[in-house]
TrEMBL record:
InterPro entries: N2O_reductase_NosL. Coiled coil: none annotated. PROSITE patterns: PROKAR_LIPOPROTEIN. This is Nitrous oxide reductase accessory protein NosL.
Length: 173
């Protein structure tokens, strides 16, 4: 009987560890969500969005532009441990202007089109996330660029200066 009780306790502890290790789910974008860096309303800006969940924080940090979110990830300064990162799946978006409030995908599984001459929500060149290689390829055929996983995005793509004098497009998806 004692052995059975010990097995049950070990199994319960393992379940608790699995629950603790599970990342938080993405949060739907609402009209009240503010962008982390500029504190502007995220929903008022077109293009893909990002959200980062931090340990001990009840709400995610939202980003009006994926480029800004990746810059935050590359920054050494953080408020807390990152527990989850999500981006808009632009392959599932209604349009560039309306990326959707709930079509989030895990950033570490997304492909990001870099180098396309398209403007994100804040007017800077954007990194455009997709859930599938096929959706990324269709976007690249229209707007140029290359598809990269999150960890391969070069620092210069998000941390370098932005030339706002060069015209950027609002793409058609």
């Amino acid at each position: 009987m004692r052995t059975l009780a010990l097995i049950v306790l070990i199994a319960l502890a393992a379940c608790k560890e699995d629950e603790a290790a599970a990342p938080p789910a993405p949060v739907d974008l609402t009209e009240s969500a503010l962008s982390y860096f500029c504190q502007m309303n995220v929903a008022e800006h077109g293009g893909p969005k990002g959200q980062i969940h931090l340990k001990g924080h009840p709400a995610p940090l939202f980003f009006a532009q994926v480029r800004d979110m990746v810059a935050y990830l590359k920054s050494p300064e953080r408020e807390a441990e990152i527990t989850a990162v999500y981006v808009s799946d632009m392959g599932a978006a209604l349009s560039w202007v309306e990326p959707g409030p709930g079509n989030w995908i895990a950033a570490d599984g997304a492909l990001f089109v870099t180098g396309a001459r398209v403007a994100g929500g804040m007017g800077a060149p954007e990194l455009v996330p997709f859930a599938t290689p096929e959706a990324a390829a269709r976007f690249i055929a229209r707007h140029g660029g290359q598809a990269l996983p999150l960890n391969d995005i070069p620092d210069a793509a998000v941390l370098g200066p932005v030339d706002l004098a060069q015209p950027l497009a609002t793409p058609v998806l």
